[in-house]
Amino acid sequence: MYLSSHGMGRAFTSVRMSCGYDLPVRCFGATSWQPCFGLRGHRLRQQKVRGQYTATASADQQTATTEVPKSNKQQQQKKQSRQKNGQNAGGKDKKSELAVTPKSEDFARWYIDVVREAQLASNGPVSGTMVIRPYGYALWEFLQQYLDRRFKETGHENAYFPTLIPLSFIQKEASHVEGFAPELALVTKGGGKDLDEPLVVRPTSETMVNHMFAQWIQGHRDLPLKVNQWANVHRWEMRTKPFIRTLEFLWQEGHTAHATAEEAEQEARDMIGIYAEFARSVAAMPVLVGRKSRMESFAGADCTYTIEAMMGDRRALQAGTTHYLGTNFAKAFGTQFLDETGARQHVHQTSFGMSTRMIGGIIMMHGDDLGLRLPPKMAPIQVVIVPIVKKEADTQDVMQAVDALHAAAQQAGLRCKVDASTEKTPGWKFNHYEMKGVPVRVEVGPRDVQQGSCVVSRRDQPGKQGKQFGVPLEPQPFVSHVQGLLQDIQDSLYADAQAFTDSNIVDVSSYEELQAAVAERKWARGAWAGSDEDEAKMKEETGATLRCIPFDQPQSDLTCFFTGSKASEVVIFAKAH
Questions:
Q1: CA distances from 206 to 209, 213, 315, 366 (A)
Q2: 267-282: string of b/e by CB count within 10 Å (b at 16+)?
């Protein structure tokens, strides 16, 4: 173990140690270090070391070395061995050995811990990128399947556009290039030679789509034209977080062209409605639906619509957006059509997108100190059955009952898994599937088989509160019970999130009240008639941004809390991810 300081303008005390797999622990003094994605228990061990040893470090001090007493080394080695073998991981054993950082203590660290321990993603070799692991990608596939079906039901067709875009395309629309310039990644060489024109690695596809729309659209019979693509995009973010903000991420982006502004405007509103539908009914995520301010709108759009969700740290997450683009891109690319009178008109357009950020939102909204809590409609595994067998003689009867439950659950369309592995203890398995957010856990042992019942635990209510005894072991009654339980869990997660959101929105009537609400990490709701300059000033002074102008507005006379003038709309201000 080494205690050292970093020459970064002020003194830091950091701890560096090796874990059982020779992976580094994050240095809490140097913000450039990446957290280790490899092993549970790092933080607990670090706290233990800090509790036993202290060191004072300054920028000009040399590295000091402190030996760990042999007895403590032996204890740590034994503890690592028990963790690797799945011991002391459940029942009355020490669950803290496998725990993540408590949400209330360090929300950001908790989030990273859950992403790692639930096996959702790992750090990529390029800083700011991530590797989505199969369990995390399964969540993306549920989003993909739902939205793809809804898009096709509303007349959209899937297409694919190139990931490399000529820089001149981006520069054609002034506000678009201004908004995206700091985030662009450029390719300047290809085949060992300098390119004639730099190519932009796709940050979004409005320009490429319009280049093609200008060739595909000739007359009014070609409209409306509605396409969607499932793709990856690249934006050179400076501060990254898995799923929430990375250099490369997955999304869908829809693009449509219409004959009239009214049709395009309605399309943008319809698509934000589909996003809200998905968030509420599938992700169990209450959202506020509304319009963005001019300052917060998409670069190149006349108007942006958004769904905003409150995360567990009470920060806002922009979970999906749609944009009415007007004729801005059509004019830049000459995208025109002959109307019914034979006159040439520019098309009116929309674009809309939802990304892997939604997965981060599900984690931050529903997760707890034990890990993920997945809505059943999104869960890759809805039910896990854990056989409890201590004697070889009991194995056949227990597994026969388990296999019958598993077959009935799968036949009913439930995503069910049996974990009959012998390498880990039942307690370890309980903690493992709690961490992964599996909604329902079923335990079947010899006594259960004799009594004709089993034990069922619901993930949304940890501990004894969520345990149900005497659930029928007969396949059909069992399946009926679990189906009802899954729906109850889905509804319960939504209700809990809605209650949390409602209790943390504060109505304000003055700037001082807004400042107080933001200081308490709450959302502020109040009448607004401020200018762009007023909005920018508030952002600079409070760190809060105008998240949303909700569609649902009060029918009453309003007075702006900032300017004191008459207002026509109520808005939401909050700090955001």
A1: 5, 10, 29, 34
A2: bbbebbbbbbebbbeb
- Kindly give the confidence (pLDDT) of every residue in the chain, 577 residues in length, as a single tens digit, with 9 standing for 90 and above: 333 333 333 333 333 333 333 333 333 333 333 444 433 444 444 444 344 333 333 333 333 333 334 445 555 555 455 444 444 333 444 443 447 899 999 999 999 999 999 999 999 999 999 999 999 999 999 999 999 999 999 999 999 999 999 999 988 876 666 766 788 999 999 999 999 999 999 999 999 999 999 999 999 999 999 999 999 999 998 889 999 999 999 999 999 999 999 999 999 999 999 999 999 999 999 999 999 999 999 888 999 999 999 999 999 999 999 999 999 999 999 999 999 999 999 999 999 999 999 999 999 999 999 999 999 999 999 999 999 999 999 999 999 999 999 999 999 999 999 999 999 999 999 999 999 999 999 999 999 999 999 999 999 998 899 999 999 999 999 999 999 999 999 999 999 999 999 999 999 999 999 999 999 999 999 999 999 999 999 999 999 999 999 999 988 889 999 999 999 999 999 999 9
Upstream peptide bond of 286 is cis (omega within 30 degrees of 0)? no
Q: Of 368, 331, 362, 364, whose CA–CA distance to 346 is shortest?
A: 331
What is the spatial distance between Cα 378 and Cα 142, in angstroms, rounded to a whole number? Answer: 6
Contacts of 134 (CB under 8 A, 6+ apart): 119
- Torsional sign, CA 515, 519, 520, 523: positive
- Reading phi first (left if > 0) and then psi (alpha if -120 to 50, else beta), residue 371 is in left
Q: How many angstroms separate the CA atoms of 307 and 289, rounded?
A: 5
Distance of CA 454 to CAs 108, 414, 444, 477, 481, Å?
38, 18, 5, 12, 12
180 membership: H or E segment, kind and range: helix 174-180
3-state secondary structure of 556: coil
436 and 134 in contact (C-beta within 8 Å)?
no
- Number of Cβ atoms within 10 Å of the Cβ of 238: 9
The residues, any chain, with a CB within 8 Å of residue 113's CB and separated by 6 or more, are 43, 100, 101
Q: What are phi and psi of 344, to 5 degrees?
A: -85, 130
